[in-house]
Design goal:
single chain, alpha+beta, Translation Initiation Factor IF3, Alpha-Beta Plaits, 2 domains, 5-stranded antiparallel sheet, 4-stranded antiparallel sheet, elongated
């Protein structure tokens, strides 16, 4: 009888302890389920630090030998022009030259009536970190027209590509700012619901985007990131 009494006591105590832990776990779980999901934004306006200008030098002729001479001459004049503008040799790249027989174009019914038989395009690329120097060269490049040199941007939809390469330096501070902004939004929500903001439950870092500020100033960029964060709420 004494043993049965002890067993009953142990069993009862076990049930009470188990009930306590189950209730506490349920309470903790409910508390963990109380959270708010908010988004935090961070933006920076920055100047591009790299410019790439891909150029085509276009010539026409009816004789291949004279075309070759003119291609070499104009390529040198274009190269000398950029050197005179203060560019270093490693900022200039001479590409290939493509020559088409215009009159052999079977897809153009008027090709045989073309004044010039051959069309040559020489590729030339300017790549520099000095944005001001490049923009000055863009305006000065009109002088080449007086020498009969026709320059055209290879990419007509974006003549010069402006790039910002310093994203890694901005990431830490921008993530911190996005997190702070998200917490401010969460605090406002908490005040409206008579709660307080606790620790971060889940944080999802959004993708960084770099876009032109507008179409007229592509050398100025907007860097943007949106972070999505779940904050715990407590009474």
């Amino acid at each position: 009888m004494k043993i049965d009494w002890i067993k009953s006591l142990i069993l009862g105590a076990s049930i009470i302890i188990a009930g306590f832990f189950i209730g506490n776990m349920h309470k903790t779980g409910k508390r963990y389920d109380r959270f708010v999901q908010v988004k935090g934004l961070s933006e920076r306006e920055v100047n591009a630090d790299l410019a790439v200008w891909p150029i085509n030098i276009t010539l026409t002729a009816n004789d291949l030998n004279s075309l070759k001479v003119n291609v070499e001459k104009q390529n040198k004049e274009v190269y000398d022009f950029f050197i005179a503008q203060g560019f270093e040799e490693n900022e200039l790249t001479k590409g290939s030259t493509n020559i088409n027989d215009v009159r052999a174009d079977i897809y153009n019914s008027n090709s045989r009536n073309s004044e010039f038989r051959y069309l040559a395009k020489s590729e030339f690329t300017v790549r520099t970190k000095d944005i001001n120097k490049l923009q000055k060269a863009l305006s000065e490049s009109l002088k080449l027209m007086s020498k009969g040199i026709l320059l055209e941007s290879k990419n007509t939809w974006k003549p010069v590509e402006y790039v910002f390469t310093g994203l890694n330096d901005l990431k830490p501070s921008m993530i911190e700012e996005a997190t702070k902004n998200a917490r401010e939004v969460a605090k406002k929500f908490a005040r409206d619901s008579n709660s307080q903001v606790g620790e971060i439950r889940i944080a999802r870092q959004g993708l960084f985007t770099i876009n032109d500020r507008d179409e007229n100033t592509p050398q100025i960029k907007i860097v943007r990131v949106v972070s999505t964060i779940d904050f715990q709420l407590r009474d």
